[in-house]
Amino acid sequence: MTQNKNLPIKIGLALGAALGIVVISIGIIRYKTGMIVRNEQTLTYVYWTIFALSIFLAVSRFRKLDASSFSLGQTVKIGILAGLLSGALYTLYIVILNNYVVPDLSSKIVQYYKQELASNSSGLSKEDILDSMAVTKLNPAVRGFIYIFVCMASGTLYSILSTIALKRLHIFRIK
To answer: Could you write out the three-class secondary structure of 7-75?
Structure first.
């Protein structure tokens, strides 16, 4: 196949844009259904599953397209860029949502946490609820930068694991 040193960058950016669209769509669904106020995380778990599988498929695709330059250093670029772009797009969404569309969203969420703390009806510990309240009270841009970091770290981890798994699978096929 053709050797293209920019291929991991192209794959990472394309994947990041696609994942950004997915996470924003999930964010909109969570907002419209009230899941965000009730702190329901089901769709968040779905997103992180999609994220991990997408990184694996992107790394696998890179190996098929350019096996000669398939290396950990190249595949980590895919994970970092996918995490960076998807996280940045979601940050843009939450800043717009919290500052322009629903400026009092954070206070509604904090109010929900206070009710949960008073009723003690959720399965969360007091510490978990207080931690969630503290994060919710942060500026949306600060929360977004934390999210970008988490996405980049996860993308890096998933790309490393994918590379190791694909290299091991390759070894087993040769024998």
So the answer is: HHHHHHHHHHHHHHHHHHHHHHHHHHHCCCCCCCCHHHHHHHHHHHHHHHHHHHHHHHHCHHHCCHHHH
Per-residue pLDDT at 135? 77
Question: Given this model, what pLDDT does residue 83 score?
Answer: 98
The 3-state DSSP class for residue 174 equals helix
Residue with tokens 């999930």: 26
53 HSE (CA, 13 A, CB side): 6
3-state secondary structure of 77: helix
Residues with Cβ within 8 Å of residue 119, at least 6 apart in sequence: none
Q: Which residues contact 87 (CB under 8 A, 6 or more apart)?
A: 20, 144, 147, 148, 149, 150, 151, 152
Size of the chain in residues: 175
Buried b (16+ CB within 10 A) or exposed e, 50-78: ebbebbbebbbebbebbeebbeeebbbbb
Instruction: List, run by run, the mean pLDDT of 10-residue segments along the chain (175 residues).
Output: 77 98 96 88 95 97 92 96 98 94 84 74 69 78 94 98 89 51
Q: What is the pTM of this model?
A: 0.85
Q: How far is 118 from 18, CA to CA, in rounded Å? A: 40
